[in-house]
Amino acid sequence: MGVDTTLTLPPQTSVRDVATVFGILLGHEKVQMPLGTIDRGWAVRVPAVDINPAPNIPACVYITEPGDFHLYHFEFNNAGHRGMMRRSTPYNIALWCAMADVFGGTVDFNDCDEEFADYVVEPPHAERPESDEAWQAWQERLWSVEPLPKNAGSKFKAVAAY
Question: Which pTM does this prediction carry?
Answer without folding.
Answer: 0.94
